[in-house]
Amino acid sequence: QVQLAESGGGLVQAGGSLRLSCTASGRALSRHVVGWFRQAPEGEREFVASISWDIGFTFYADSVKGRFTISRDSAKNTVYLEMSSLKPEDTADYYCASRIGVHKSDQKEYGYWGQGTQVTVSS
User: From residue 72, how far is each of 6, 57, 109, 121 by CA, in Å?
Assistant: First the structure.
């Protein structure tokens, strides 16, 4: 079993930056892909970015390319999501999730989830 815990959410002005963390416990993330998803109020959960733990391959949704960066720290068993040039439409609850295998952007493919952290971008 993998337990995931997000942190780092908060309130930020448009154009600002924020870094989210996703720390894993319970088992190693070897062979896992860790993804970030977000769900806006009254919206569906959507893929944001993912990273393969062993190789470091990254994938991004078009809406965040060039603004968000996903990375991992093996020593801390943590995945980060650096968010910059934030827009009000980035406001959402952000979740990290993991799966064993290759990258997927469909949330249904991920079996382990954190509780989420809220990000609010004011205009």
Answer: 13, 11, 21, 24
